[in-house]
C-alpha cells in the first residue's frame, strides 16, 4: 500500500513533529473558538447557548477498507459523519477534534492525505479543527472525531419529540451509499483475483460518491430554519431508515406508518441495486450511511415543506399500540425491523 507516494517515516518526525506538521495548515475562523490547538485544552465560548458534543470512532477493517477508500476521502467522510450528529440535533457545528492512531505502515504522506480531506470538510462546513490526539497503534488506522456545536435551548430537536399525527419526512434520497459499497466491494474482489483488471465504475459516479464522500445535511437544517419549521423529532440516517425510524418511535413512545412508494430512491441507486439482485427498498431501509436527516413535523407545517424537492414525506406517526409498520407498494403491511449495521456487514 502507498506504493505510489513518497514515504517519510513517521519515527523520524516524532509525535510532536508530526502534530506540528499536520496542524500547521489549521486556521481558526469561528468566533466561538477562543483557543484552538497548542495548549492542554481548547477554549470555546458559546455565550449562553447549549453545547452539543458528539463523538465517533472509526477502525480500519471494521468501518473502512483502505483497499478502496482513498485517504483523502476517508478524512472527509470521518468529519462529515460526525458533523451529521450535530445537525441531527438541529444545531450549528462549530469545532471538531481529530484524533489518530497510526501503525508503522503509514508514512507522513498518508497522514497528510487524510488530513487534507478532514480540513477540506472543515473549511466547507465552517468548522474549526481545535485539537486532537496522536498515537502509535499496534495495527491499522484508528480515527476518532469529536464534533462540538451549539444551539439555543428552544431550538434543540431530540429523538423523543414526535407526536401522533406528525408527518415523517426525510431529506435527499436513500440507499445510494449501500449500493456504492456493493460496487466497491465487487471491484475489490475482481481486483484481488486479477490485479491487472482496472476497476469498472463507469457511469456509477453518484452511488460511489454517496459511499466515499457523503455530505452531512447542514443545508437542510438551514432550510428548515428559513421555512420556520422546527421538527418535533430528528435523527440522522447512519444505520438505515428502518433503524432510525424505530429510534424515533421508541424514544417518542409512538408508532408509525411508512409508505414504501414514498421512500426517495435515486434512479442510479434503483438500477444498480437491481443489477446486484437487491431490492432497492431494502437498501434504503437497511443499508445505512446515507447521512440524510429523518425528522417529524406537525401537519400544520406541511404547506411550508410540500414544494421542497429535497424533502420527502414518507409516512406519519401513530399511537404506540398501532406498531411501526411499512405499507408496501402492493398495499401489504409489514412490521418494520431494524437490521441496520449488522445485516449491512453480514451481507457484504
Ligand atoms: P497532550 O499531551 O495534552 O495530549 P499533545 O501533545 O497530544 O497534548 O497535543 C498538543 C496539542 O496538539 C493539543 O492542542 C492537541 O489538541 C493538539 N493535537 C494533538 N494531536 C492532534 C491531531 N491529530 N490533530 C489536531 N490537533 C492535535
Ligand atoms: Mg496528546
Automatic annotation (TrEMBL):
Substrate binds at residues 63, 289, 341. InterPro entries: PurM-like_C_sf, PurM-like_N, PurM-like_N_sf, ThiL-like. Mg(2+) 1 binds at residues 55-56, 133. Its EC number is 2.7.4.16. It is an enzyme of class 2 (transferase). Mg(2+) 4 binds at residues 40, 54, 85. It catalyses: thiamine phosphate + ATP = thiamine diphosphate + ADP. Mg(2+) 2 binds at residues 56, 85. ATP binds at residues 115, 132-133, 159, 238. Transmembrane segments: none annotated. Belongs to the thiamine-monophosphate kinase family. This is Thiamine-monophosphate kinase. It comes from Parapedobacter deserti.
Amino acid at each position: 500500500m502507498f506504493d505510489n507516494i513518497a514515504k517519510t517515516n513517521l519515527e523520524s518526525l516524532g509525535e510532536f513533529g508530526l502534530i506540528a506538521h499536520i496542524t500547521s495548515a489549521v486556521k481558526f475562523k469561528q468566533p466561538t473558538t477562543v483557543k484552538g490547538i497548542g495548549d492542554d485544552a481548547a477554549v470555546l465560548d458559546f455565550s449562553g447557548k447549549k453545547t452539543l458534543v458528539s463523538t465517533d470512532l472509526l477502525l480500519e477493517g471494521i468501518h473502512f477498507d483502505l483497499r478502496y477508500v482513498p485517504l483523502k476521502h476517508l478524512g472527509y467522510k470521518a468529519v462529515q459523519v460526525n458533523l451529521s450528529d450535530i445537525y441531527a440535533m438541529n444545531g450549528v457545528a462549530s469545532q471538531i477534534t481529530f484524533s489518530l492512531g497510526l501503525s508503522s505502515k503509514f508514512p507522513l504522506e498518508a497522514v497528510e492525505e487524510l488530513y487534507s480531506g478532514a480540513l477540506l470538510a472543515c473549511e466547507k462546513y465552517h468548522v474549526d479543527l481545535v485539537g486532537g490526539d496522536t498515537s502509535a497503534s499496534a495495527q491499522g488506522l484508528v480515527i476518532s472525531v469529536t464534533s462540538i456545536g451549539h444551539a439555543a435551548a428552544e431550538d434543540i430537536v431530540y429523538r423523543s419529540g414526535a407526536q401522533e399525527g406528525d408527518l415523517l419526512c426525510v431529506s435527499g434520497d436513500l440507499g445510494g451509499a449501500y449500493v456504492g459499497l456493493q460496487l466497491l466491494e465487487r471491484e475489490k474482489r475482481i481486483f484481488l483475483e486479477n490485479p491487472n483488471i482496472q476497476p469498472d465504475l463507469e457511469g456509477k459516479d453518484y452511488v460511489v460518491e454517496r459511499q466515499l464522500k457523503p455530505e452531512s445535511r447542514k443545508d437542510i437544517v438551514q432550510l428548515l430554519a428559513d421555512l420556520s419549521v422546527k421538527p418535533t423529532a430528528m435523527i440522522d440516517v447512519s444505520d438505515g431508515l428502518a433503524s432510525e425510524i424505530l429510534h424515533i418511535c421508541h424514544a417518542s413512545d409512538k408508532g408509525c406508518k411508512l409508505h414504501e412508494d414514498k421512500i426517495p430512491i435515486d434512479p442510479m441507486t434503483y438500477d444498480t441495486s437491481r443489477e446486484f439482485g437487491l431490492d432497492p427498498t431494502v437498501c434504503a431501509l437497511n443499508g445505512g450511511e446515507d447521512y440524510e436527516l429523518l425528522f417529524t413535523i406537525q401537519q400544520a407545517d406541511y404547506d411550508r415543506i410540500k414544494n421542497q424537492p429535497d424533502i420527502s414525506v414518507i409516512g406519519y406517526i401513530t399511537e404506540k399500540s398501532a406498531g411501526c409498520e411499512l405499507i408496501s407498494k402492493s398495499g401489504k403491511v409489514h412490521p418494520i425491523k431494524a437490521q441496520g449495521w449488522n445485516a449491512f456487514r453480514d451481507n457484504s
